[in-house]
Design brief:
Blueprint (H helix, E strand, L loop, with lengths): L5 E7 L5 H12 L4 E6 L6 E6 L6 H9 L5 E5 L1
Length: 77
């Protein structure tokens, strides 16, 4: 069975350093169903995430960021 992938962009609010953005991306990438999570090379407040919607939801991904105390919003689905 082929794995269906979608992507979402998260907007991270506040002043986050490169290390904190990378830590958030690593936390997201470690979740089952997420194939890639990386900070945008052109916009430091954006995080690009590819995932399998049958394994994890965009809301769950967003919740994992917010659980770190970081304000974030979904930008695109």
């Amino acid at each position: 069975m082929k794995n269906y992938q979608v992507n979402v962009i998260l907007h991270l609010s506040g002043n986050l350093g490169a290390a904190e953005r990378a830590g958030i991306a690593q936390q997201i990438a470690a979740q089952p169903g997420v194939s890639r999570a990386q900070p945008s090379p052109k916009a430091e407040r954006l995080l690009l995430v590819d995932y399998d919607p049958s394994a994890i939801s965009s809301q769950r991904i967003l919740g994992s960021v917010r659980s770190r105390g970081v304000a974030a919003q979904l930008v695109g689905l």
